[in-house]
Amino acid sequence: MMWQNYHLDNAISKAGEDTKLWQTEKGIVEIEKNTLAIPVIMNDQVKGYIFDGHGKLLLDTIVETKEGAVGKPVEKEIHAPFVMLGNVEMTGRNLKPASSEDLAEASYADRLGFMAKAEELLDRFFKNGRIHSRRCSYGDEGILFAFQNQPDNLDILLAKDTKIVYKAMDTVFISDKNRAVLKSCEVVCVSSGKSVVVKRAKGCSMLCC
After folding, report:
1. What is the reported pTM?
2. Distance CA 155, CA 24 (A)
3. Beta strands in the chain (DSSP E)
4. What are the sequence ranges of the domains in the chain?
5. pLDDT tens-digit map of 118-128
6. For the chain, how big is the Rg over CA atoms in Å?
7. How many CA atoms lie within 13 A of 87 on its CB side?
């Protein structure tokens, strides 16, 4: 199956040790040892992976204003398969071939079972053309994660250099050096020491497009 010229490789690997897939002063994405991985290929080159195992996402989405700090950090345990595009060279160094025992440990009867679940996730991801275009704007030097949230929704984390974009069901966070925008039950914009805070209705919810 193809998604915008992307497809999955047949080789299934696992993390040989706990591995940091992305880390800056603003956050971290980490997987535990033995997490399964399958490469995402485009033009015969590895462009990313789909992982299935245990890990964590930590992201500092607190915005400092003159009135004080607004927001709270994102802290999520990862247990469902997720997509990563970018950072393939560093990640690949910590991967080694997975055995049938490794697949069984992850509750897969064989490699075809894992591949089917990975294909389903990648298909969902690339059906959203806007997400795909945002990825392309970041280029090969950026990194993108798509985490499963609810059956029909994905949380997206984009990072390149100092810029971070995080989009979840109830939160949008954009940060670049001394500028930040946070949209949740409050909308906060900060730039060069100046800030604007707009309080939304109590009990509000936000569906991000």
Report:
1. 0.85
2. 19
3. 6-8, 13-15, 19-24, 27-31, 36-42, 45-52, 55-59, 63-65, 68-70, 74-78, 82-85, 95-97, 143-150, 153-160, 163-167, 172-176, 179-183, 186-191, 194-199
4. 6-161
5. 999 998 888 76
6. 18
7. 22
